[in-house]
UniProtKB/TrEMBL annotation, chain A:
It comes from Celeribacter ethanolicus. The lineage of its organism: Bacteria, Pseudomonadati, Pseudomonadota, Alphaproteobacteria, Rhodobacterales. InterPro entries: TM_pro_TauE-like, TSUP/Inactive_protease-like. The chain crosses the membrane at residues 12-39, 83-101, 113-134, 178-206, 213-236, 242-259, 271-292. The keyword Zinc does not apply. It is a multi-pass membrane protein. PANTHER family: MEMBRANE TRANSPORTER PROTEIN MJ0441-RELATED, MEMBRANE TRANSPORTER PROTEIN YTNM-RELATED. It is found in: Cell membrane; Membrane. This is Probable membrane transporter protein. Its main location: membrane. Keywords: Cell membrane, Membrane, Transmembrane, Transmembrane helix. GO terms for cellular component: plasma membrane. Belongs to the 4-toluene sulfonate uptake permease (TSUP) (TC 2.A.102) family.
Length: 302, 247
């Protein structure tokens, strides 16, 4: 069934969009990532103009994150306090990030920088996560049935302004979460994504939060950053296509519920390996695109 | 009133100059883009009106062109720098139609000398930024649009019967740009345009498409909040539905 999108001004198959939303929704629910780094390139692929794709995926991320976070709320796997602290950092970071983005835009080459950012960050994060989770699985095999060793005293535990994050079982300084928020907010604004794929590993490896709580908390935080991005795009660029977003989110919210169920059945290490492989796959695709000669040397754009 | 005026005009014209005239119509002059719009076929048809018998010494040809609304485009060129392919150059190129179709009874090269073609801007080569001919960016633009099937040449697709009745159908694509689509019909004999007729097809969004588009531009903040509300509501609804299913 073909449908004409009012803002994107293209006609696309409605079922393709439902399917795309569904796939990204499943991943979102499973890993706590908004899926922006996946859905945006997928939308380019079906012929949606890049500006509309970026803005509209932010809108769809809000929906799948709400759907996912509610499932996590019921299981009490959301650390609201941590989420709010991260969000404060995140909004500050977004504001800085948008400044950097505009500065680079004035210099030209912003597209290249975004792609390079993707390749570098996805590459580093994917690789580190993969190694770490493989090690964790090996360790678990070595000691069947035994609980993994208690987390060591990380450097983050020595900083001042300690706060109690009950849901995460942490008593740490507020400085690291705010710093993580700022960093992710900055990268998110530059790369045009919610930043879940950076946030999730940062929460696990820097803050030492348990994986199960990380996903719900990340989703909680993403709702607000993605919502803020959507509003900004709708207000300044008029590039949010509600009809496109609606089709994506119908698939997305259903997918997110399924993804949450899958996520609860999988072991934390398996979940991390799967996310690592996914991140590396996207990184590889983007990297290869930079290296091979393009089909058309020229491209049209406004 | 206009008919009387046309008749008067006809009388005033020097005899012979308007020996053959084109009378044409379109199957529709308005295209409504609604939610299930998937391109449109427009039938262009008409007749040659003449007050003398059909001249037999030279063949008569019909050329029909349809041009979409004009836009300014930026064309970027990629090149290899430090081993990776990046955009190295951007060129803003003047007004070009977003859609252009030329249909004719026979190959245009056989019926129209280049000079007449230039004068009336008929083929894409003469119509699309002819001043920039040879500029790689302009050639790339034409090539990209041809690849997307937005610029088309349909030689031999206009059917002319008994040197009098002609018709063809013009396919408007699904990814259409709103606006006026200028339609021109030319009668050609002996390499000269002996008569032409112009009209336009109005392409416009209707219904929910129109409403959403207007809202997005005129009430951007409300539109943005609406988008967020829809997102949050459907997220909540999905979560509730799944909770009920699982119960």
């Amino acid at each position: 069934m073909q449908i004409f999108l009012p803002i994107a001004e293209v006609s696309v198959n409605a079922f393709t969009l439902l399917g795309l939303g569904g796939i990204v929704g499943v991943l979102s629910g499973m890993f706590g990532v908004g899926g922006g780094f996946l859905i945006t390139p997928l939308l380019f692929f079906v012929g949606i103009p890049p500006a509309v794709a970026v803005a509209t995926s932010a809108n769809q991320i809000v929906a799948s994150s709400v759907s996912g976070v509610l499932a996590h709320f019921k299981r009490k796997t959301v650390d609201i306090k941590m989420g709010v602290v991260l969000l404060i950092g995140g909004l500050v970071g977004s504001a800085i990030g948008i400044q950097i983005f505009n500065m680079l835009k004035a210099l030209g080459q912003v597209d290249l920088l975004v792609t390079l950012c993707y390749v570098v960050f996805l590459g580093i994060i994917g690789f580190l996560m993969l190694i770490e989770s493989i090690r964790a699985i090996r360790r678990a095999r070595g000691r069947p049935g035994g609980r993994p060793a208690r987390k060591k005293h990380l450097w983050v535990h020595t900083l001042p302004f300690k706060m109690k994050f009950r849901a995460s079982g942490l008593y740490i300084s507020a400085i690291p979460p705010i710093a993580v928020g700022v960093m992710v907010g900055m990268l998110g604004a530059v790369m045009g994504v919610g930043g879940g794929f950076i946030m999730v590993p940062a929460m696990i490896y820097i803050l030492g939060m348990p994986t199960k709580v990380v996903i719900g908390t990340s989703l909680f935080q993403i709702i607000f950053t993605a919502g803020f991005t959507t509003l900004l795009h709708a207000y300044t660029n008029h590039t949010v296509d509600v009809l496109l977003a609606f089709l994506l989110l119908v698939g997305g919210v259903i997918g997110a519920q399924i993804g949450t169920q899958i996520g609860l059945k999988l072991k934390a290490e398996q979940l991390r390996i799967a996310l690592a492989l996914l991140v590396l796959a996207v990184c590889l695709k983007l990297g290869i695109d930079l290296l091979i000669p393009p089909k058309d040397l020229y491209s049209l754009g406004s | 009133m206009s008919r009387i005026f046309a008749l008067l005009l006809l009388c005033l014209l020097p005899f012979g100059a308007q020996a053959e005239q084109v009378v044409a119509a379109l199957s529709q002059t308005r295209v409504s883009v609604n939610a299930n719009f998937d391109g449109s076929e427009i039938l262009v048809f008409g007749a040659v009106k003449r007050d003398k018998p059909v001249p037999t010494d030279s063949p008569l040809d019909v050329i029909i062109t349809v041009a979409g609304p004009e836009q300014v485009e930026t064309i970027r060129r990629k090149d290899r720098r430090f081993g990776i392919w990046i955009n190295v150059e951007a060129q803003v190129i003047g007004h070009t139609p977003t859609f252009y179709t030329v249909a004719s009874t026979r190959p245009i090269a056989d019926i129209l000398p280049p000079l007449t073609d230039s004068l009336w801007k008929i083929t894409a080569d003469k119509r699309i930024l002819p001043a920039l001919r040879g500029n790689p960016a302009r050639e790339a633009l034409i090539e990209l649009r041809q690849k997307d099937d937005l610029y088309r040449t349909r030689e031999g697709e206009v059917v002319l019967s008994a040197d009098t009745l002609f018709d063809t159908s013009i396919a408007l694509p699904a990814n259409i740009v709103e606006g006026a689509y200028a339609t021109r019909i030319f009668l050609v004999r002996d390499g000269e345009v002996i008569d032409s007729y112009g009209t336009s097809i109005n392409v416009q969004k209707v219904g929910i498409e129109r409403w959403l588009y207007n809202l997005a531009y005129s009430q951007a903040l409300i539109y943005g909040l609406m988008a967020l509300a829809i997102a949050a509501l459907s997220g909540w609804a999905a979560s509730e539905v799944f909770r009920l299913i699982r119960r």
